Structure formats: C-alpha cells, structure tokens
Amino acid sequence: MVDLKAIEAAARRIRGVVVETPLIKAHQVSAMVGTDVYLKCENLQVTGSFKARGASNFVLSLVERLGAANSEASSTFGADAQGLSGASRRLGGIITASSGNHGQAVAYAAKRVGLPCTVAVPEDVIRVKEVAIESFGAQVVRVGRTSSDRIDYAERLAAQQNLVFVPPYDHEDIVAGQGTAGLEVVHSLPEVREVYVPVGGGGLISGVSTAVKSLRPMARVIGVEPELANDTYLSMQEGRIVDIGSNTTIADGLRTSHPGSFTFPIVQKNVDEIALVSEAQITEAMRILFEAKLVVEPSGCTSVAAVLGASEAGHRFDGPVVCVLSGGNVAPEIFASVLQ
User: Fold this and answer.
1) Is 94 in a helix, a strand, or coil?
2) CA dist., res. 95 & res. 89, Å (int)
3) pLDDT for 94
4) Residue 49 to residues 195, 277, 328: CA-CA distances in angstroms?
5) Looking at residue 87, what is its pLDDT?
6) In this structure, what CATH number is given to the domain that contains residue 271?
7) Which BP terms in the Gene Ontology apply to this protein (predicted)?
8) Which residue of 78, 79, 106, 155 lies most exposed, with the fewest beta carbons within 10 A?
9) Sites in the chain below the pLDDT cut of 50
10) 3-state secondary structure of 14
C-alpha cells in the first residue's frame, strides 16, 4: 500500500519536473449545482495530463536506485561513476503501454534522464497523442485495442530486450506520483468536502484518495467512470476485479478493461463511491468547460459530468467540491465535433 509518506517523498522528487497545477473556481458549474466547485487543472500539466506525475516519479526513482547501485559498486570495486551507472548502461531502456497520455509522460521523463523509450499504443490511438509521444523521441508501436493487449506486449518485449516496464497505473511509484495532485488539492483547499476523480486503471484515484483521506478523513472521494467503461464500478459491486474487455467510450483515456491488481485494493479502502456518466453527459461537460475557456479531453471532463449529474439527481453538497480535470490532450476533430 502507498501511504502519505511515499506521496510526500514523490512530491519532493518530482518538484521542478512537473508543475503545481492551479485550482480554480468553476463559476458556471458552481451556480448550476449550488455549491462552490473548484477545478484541479491537470490539463495544464506538462505533457497535458496528470500522468507526468507518476511517470516522472517512477523514472526518477529508477535512476536513483541505479545511481545507488553504482555508488556501491564504485566504493567496492572502484568503478567509473560518471554518467549513468553500470547497471543503467546495461539497461536497454524503458517501455510502457498507453492509450496516449501515460506514454507521452513516460517519453517526457525518459528524455529528461537520457533513457531510450518505447511505447505500445492501441491500434486506434488518437493521432495527436501519438505525435506527442514521438515528439519526445520515443518509438511508438501499435498493438491491439485493449489495455491488456498493450501491457502483455510491453512486458514480453521488456523481458526479451532488457527493458524496464513502466506500468500505466499498477505500481507504487506511479500511484505515489499521482497522489501528489491530491496533496496539492488539500493544501490549496483544506475545507474540501468532496473530490471527484476520473477512473481508468486506478492510479490517479488511488493516489489522490490516499492523500485526501490521510489529510482530510471526512472528505468524500468519488471515482467517475463512463457507463461504457464501467470496470471499476462493476468490480466494486462484485468485490473482485472484473474484466469487461474492449469498449468504445469517447473518453479514450478511461478505456481500461479492468482495474489494476495493485490499485483496486486501495480504491476499495479509500473511495466512497464510483459514479457513472453517459457519453452525452461527458460531451456536455466538455462544452461547459470550453465556455470557461478550458480545453479538456473527454476523460478529464467526467468529473464535472458527475457533479452535474449528482446535482440533477438531488444530491445535496455540504461544502466545497473539487473536480480533477485529468488531461487536455484532445484531438482537434473530436473537440470540434463535440462543440458542434
């Protein structure tokens, strides 16, 4: 399990590599639901999504471990300690699997430390995300349509070519890195009562919920999934991990087929509720956020969609609400079609 201490360590590690994103009041949404609603703008994060937090923490932690191994070797054997460690030089690089945002974040982190990077993306990857990954010098390979397809391929290649696999969500360093967004939420708005978080594989909500519940135990944490990608919702209902296979939600960043084996127990422990939103609710939230001059991808809009949906269903908010906008990497043609 990841704890507050690990998240605080991650915050120190990635400081200066990622940015502390703003928490801004959503005036229109606040008026619509009758309470103060704030937006945690991870769409303004480096690489355009929260994924930069976890990926940077994982890669920098890896480099720290390699550096520590090299220091030990140097003191014992007099090895040359310049540049990457001996273990790092033998390492073929890093590899990950992603629908786009995580791959871009890993490519960004890899470039920062000079490691070769390969990213397995879905066959129907959004082109703007593929181009963004390539812009950081990573090699892109198209594999299947489900998260399981991509992860299985990346793990096999890692074993064959001496690469380190960077999980999209199912690792303590990833979760701790994502949790830094939750730290920032509570530090910026200590009186927060509810936090709405998009849910894919569970890395973001695992980290955010751990930070929020550690610092503000009475605050409620609500995960949000599309109705068409409701694997965590079903898993919570069943009390076990449920695999739903491929899905076609517009929220491409949330098209996971099942929650992670590492993240799911954290979600079970810390998350108060999983809310579902329709495709129409997602696109309406995109339009409302655009009116507030914010470009947010469909996955990132689900948190706002859930707050609006809860209000329409009669939910009474008893204090400030935070919606995490998980990313802003939306293809121009998709964004234009939604606005039309």
Assistant:
1) strand
2) 16
3) 96
4) 18, 21, 6
5) 45
6) 3.40.50.1100
7) isoleucine biosynthetic process; L-serine catabolic process; L-threonine catabolic process
8) 78
9) 71-88
10) helix
User: Mind listing the pLDDT tens digit for each residue in 64-104?
Assistant: 988 765 544 333 323 333 344 444 456 789 999 987 899 99
Whether residues 154 and 183 share a domain: the answer is no
Domain end residue (candidates: 114, 147, 166):
166
């995960």: which residue's tokens? Answer: 223
Among candidates 75, 58, 71, which has minimal Cα distance to 18? Answer: 58
Looking at 144-278, list the stretches that DSSP marks H as alpha helix, in order from N- to C-terminal side: 147-161, 172-188, 203-215, 231-238, 263-270
∠ CA 19-8-329, rounded to 5°: 35
According to the model, what pLDDT value does residue 82 have?
Answer: 34
Instruction: Return the amino acid letter for 60.
Output: L
For residues 293-326, b (16+ Cβ closer than 10 Å) or e, as one string? Answer: ebbbbbbbbbbbbbbbbbbeeeeebeebbbbbbb
Q: Which residue has the tokens 């899905």?
A: 247
Nearest CA to 235 among 195, 279, 205?
205
pLDDT for 85 equals 45
pLDDT number for residue 84: 44
Residues in a beta bridge with 276: 225
Q: Which residue segment(s) compose the domain that 237 sits in?
A: 4-49+172-339
Which residues, listed in sequence order, are joined to residue 275 by a DSSP beta bridge? 224
